[in-house]
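Dear colleague,

Thank you for sharing your sequence with our group. We've completed the structure prediction you requested, and as agreed, I am returning the results in plain text so they can be pasted directly into your records. Please verify that the sequence below matches your submission; if there's any discrepancy, let me know and we will rerun it promptly.
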Amino acid sequence: MQHIADITENENWITATTLQERYGKKKDYQVVDADIRVSTSDTELTECPAIYREDGDCHFIVAKAGDNTYRPQYFYRTHEMFGKGAPEYDDLATCLVTLLHTQSDHETSKITNNES
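Please find the predicted structure tokens below.
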């Protein structure tokens, strides 16, 4: 089983800074463990560190799948999961910005469709 290094101090700083820039104030998040298939050919799950945040009924997670490898996803309920943009990113800041942007677009789309 592959070992994935913990979230670093720099990755925490990038996360905190990106969230503060997006929302205009400090936002809390957690570093958690997530079980993922690091490679599509893996038959077993690997425990990986991940950044997790809830915002209302939306849940965000960015799993660290290797050195400089990040997988974003947001979801509302188990059957309503989204992983927008590239399936993997080699830059955490780009990963977070893309995730937050696509989720915001999704929210806007939901509001627009409900007004129609």
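Summary note from our side: Residues 9-115 form one domain.

Kind regards,
the structure core
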